[in-house]
Every structure is written in C-alpha cells, then in structure tokens.
C-alpha cells in the first residue's frame, strides 16, 4: 500500500482530547444494580475512553452515533415525524426486552427541533424503565452558542471533550424548559451551570 | 582539556552523521501475528465459511462466516469482511460489517471501521477507530463481587463523605472505616 492510500485508509488524525470534571457523573452511576448487566445508550461517537470505562462493568453499550447518521442521511431531519421516529427505531435496533439504564445524550438533542425531538422521544420511550437516567448538555439560554464538540467518559468524575473533526451541522440550542416540553420521555432532575453557558443536566425517565 | 574532549566529540559526530541522501518515508506498522498464521492476500476474494486450526490474517475480501474459536483473526488495513467472526482474539485494522465474538478480546485499531455487534470479555478501541453497534462486555469480576460502587469509590479516593456516598456506606459498613 503506498503512502497516499495508507493516509486515506487512516482518515483524518483524531482530535486531541481534553478533560472536564463532572459533578453529575457520580450521581448518574449511583444506586445502579451491579448484579445485573448494565445497558447503556450512547448517542455519540464511540470513544476509546468510554469503552475503557465501561469495560470494568458487565454491560452492553449501544453506540448509535446520531451525528454521523445525520451527516450520511441515515437520519433525515426533513422527514415527517412518523418517518423520523421509524428511522430512530431502526437505528436503535434494540432487542425485545431491552431496558436502558443510562442514556448518554451529550449535546445531540440541540441538533433537532421540537418535531424531531418528539420523534426521538417517542422512539426512545419503549426502551426506558422507571430507573433510567440520562446525561445531557443543555444550555442556559437559547443565545448560548453550541460548540462543535464530542464527549466521552474517562471515569466517574471526568468527561473527555474533543473538537469534532467534521463540520458542524445546523443546530438550535434549547434551554431546559424546551427540553422538558419536547423530550417528553425524560424530565430534568438536576443541573449544573458550567462556565461556558452549558448546563450539565441529569434527567430521569417519566415512566 | 574540555576543548580536546569537545574536538573528539565533534570528530565522532562527523564520522557518525549519516548522509541524508534519501528522504525518510514513514510506513504503516506491519500487522504482527504470532505463531502459524494463514493469510488471505489483498487480491483474494472469498465467499463462504472459513474455519480451521490456525490464526488468520485477512488483507483481501471475505463474505460469509469465520469460525476460529481457539485462534486469532486479524483484519488488516486493506481487509474487508462482511461476515460474523468468532475467534480468540480479533483485531481489526480494516473494515468489518458483521458480528464479532472474541473469546478473549476484540481490538479495533485507529484505522478500523466496524459496524456490527461485539461480544467479548474485553474490548479495546483505539483513537480514530470507527464503530457503530453494540458492545457486550463482561470482565468476569463484576462490581457486585467487588462490593464497591463507583460512587463509594469516589468517596474513598477523595477522603470526603459526599451525601451521595452515604447510601453505599450503609450497604457496606466496612467502607466507613476505609474512608476515615
């Protein structure tokens, strides 16, 4: 394989990762039943540190990478609500009986409007249970700029943050009230305002 | 004295300095496989089931099913596999669409691209790797067996007693002694 082909096969160099402490991650992992397998939904890209972190548990991680699906057309934001809901369901591909313990939504809901969030919520709802928790980055106000970032988990107190290599898609940052109104399968239980105007938010299922 | 030494060092430097006549070309690290390994070369295409008693390096295209439970399967940089793979250790530096069952572990390197479900006691994902699907892991020693939840470990590490750790302490009284 010549040099050009090797570089093409390798793809772009992975962006450097920085660390961000989290006050809510310990709460996310608190009171989980470690006697049974942990089931996690990660809407972001598969990160080495996240896989490494969960490798210490008996678990199943579902990596959906919503952002790349939006880029490639696997998710069509112009589709009707029903069509988009079906696309989300196909993307999830969960086996019957799956119950999600943790949902890592990161900042991805800000790439959807209210109709799309409702479709996502409807697709996710059947897979939640009463103790499902979700982690999400909200914004304090709709005027807050959403940075083009990807996230992972380093340990129970620390997140990783990377600049996303791909160009940023159109987005509209939603304040917590908007999320509570349209992401109906989840409701906010705790939030921490971060220096950059994001609100690190813990949500739990409304079941 | 120092000048003499300096001259000697300088002389050595001139003698040992390599002549830079050729550009240095970085090459991708070779895929290393231990022991006897069968190789499917980059120009080979296989449609069918593969099984056997030795490890396998795939640099070509395979469509079907690969079953080498006691040996290793490596999908090289130019390998393209559309198959379910079962092996002791599975390493992916190329492209795979299918389910991977690693009896010991699964490794997706920085050039790897996997779409499918992975079942392994342990999985390693390198920076730059692309993966979509589910990962089933079981390290063999669960949190329950260790008797320590992440929240309780946070309290012990930091030496403080945040409120969220008290439930863990109630379930495991010994932790109260450790946290001091």
Structure described in brief:
Chain A is an alpha/beta fold. Helices cover 27% and strands 30% of the residues of chain A.
Report on the structure:
The complex is a heterodimer of chains A (207) and B (180). Chain A has 207 residues and is an alpha/beta fold. Chain A has one domain (15-205): 3-Layer(aba) Sandwich (Rossmann fold). Chain A has seven helices and nine strands. Chain A has helices at 3-10, 25-28, 48-54, 66-72, 81-92, 114-124, 176-182, and strands spanning 17-21, 38-42, 59-63, 100-106, 128-139, 149-155, 158-163, 186-193, 198-205. A six-stranded mixed β-sheet of chain A has the order 3-2-4-5-9-8. In chain A, strands 1-7-6 form a three-stranded antiparallel β-sheet. In chain A, strand 2, helix 3 (48-54) and strand 3 form a beta-alpha-beta unit. In chain A, helix 5 packs across helix 6 (114-124). The radius of gyration of chain A is 17 Å and the shape is globular. The relative contact order of chain A is 0.20. Mean pLDDT of chain A is 89; it is low at 6-11. Chain B is of the alpha/beta class. Chain B has two domains: 37-137, no CATH class; 143-179, no CATH class. Chain B has helices spanning 2-16, 143-146, 150-158, 166-171, 174-179; strands spanning 37-40, 45-51, 55-58, 61-75, 80-92, 95-97, 100-108, 113-115, 118-120, 123-125, 130-137. A six-stranded parallel barrel of chain B has the order 5-6-8-11-9-7. Chain B is globular, with a radius of gyration of 26 Å. The N and C termini of chain B lie far apart (61 Å). Chain A binds chain B through residues 1, 3, 6, 9-11, 13-14, 17, 26-27, 29-32, 34-35, 37, 46-48, 51-52, 54-65, 68, 93, 156-157, and chain B through 25-28, 77-78, 94, 110-111, 122-139, 142-144, 149-151, 153-154, 162, 164, 167-168.
């Amino acid at each position: 394989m010549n040099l050009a082909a090797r570089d093409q096969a390798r793809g772009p160099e992975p962006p450097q990762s920085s660390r961000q402490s989290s006050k809510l991650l310990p709460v996310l992992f608190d009171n989980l039943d470690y006697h049974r397998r942990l089931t996690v939904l990660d809407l972001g890209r598969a990160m080495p540190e996240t896989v490494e972190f969960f490798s210490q548990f008996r678990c199943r991680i579902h990596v959906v990478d919503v952002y790349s699906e939006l880029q490639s057309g696997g998710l069509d934001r112009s589709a009707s609500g029903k069509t988009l809901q079906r696309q989300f369901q196909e993307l999830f591909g969960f086996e019957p009986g799956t119950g999600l313990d943790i949902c890592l939504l990161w900042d991805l809901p800000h790439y959807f409007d209210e109709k799309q969030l409702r479709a996502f919520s409807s697709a996710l709802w059947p897979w939640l249970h009463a103790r499902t928790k979700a982690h999400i980055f909200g914004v304090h106000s709709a005027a807050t700029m959403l940075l083009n970032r990807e996230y992972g988990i380093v340990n129970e107190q620390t997140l990783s943050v990377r600049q996303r290599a791909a160009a940023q898609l159109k987005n509209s940052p939603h304040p917590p009230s908007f999320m509570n109104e349209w992401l109906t399968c989840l409701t906010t239980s705790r939030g921490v305002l971060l220096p950059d105007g994001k609100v690190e938010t813990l949500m739990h299922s409304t079941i | 004295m120092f000048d003499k030494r300096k001259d000697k060092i300088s002389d050595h430097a001139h003698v040992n300095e390599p002549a830079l006549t050729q550009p240095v070309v970085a090459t991708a690290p070779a895929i290393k496989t231990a022991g006897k390994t069968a190789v499917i070369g980059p120009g080979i295409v296989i449609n069918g089931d593969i099984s056997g008693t030795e490890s396998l390096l795939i640099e070509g295209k395979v469509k079907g099913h690969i079953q080498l439970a006691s040996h290793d399967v490596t999908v090289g940089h130019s390998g393209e596999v559309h198959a379910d793979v079962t092996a002791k250790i599975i390493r992916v530096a190329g492209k795979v669409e299918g389910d991977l069952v690693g009896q010991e572990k699964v490794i997706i390197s920085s050039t790897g691209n996997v779409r499918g479900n992975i079942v392994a006691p342990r999985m390693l994902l390198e920076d730059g790797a692309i993966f979509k699907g589910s990962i089933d892991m079981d390290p063999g020693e669960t949190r329950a067996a260790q008797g320590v939840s992440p929240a309780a470990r946070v309290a012990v590490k930091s030496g403080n007693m945040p409120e969220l750790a008290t439930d863990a302490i109630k379930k495991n009284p010994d932790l109260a002694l450790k946290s001091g």
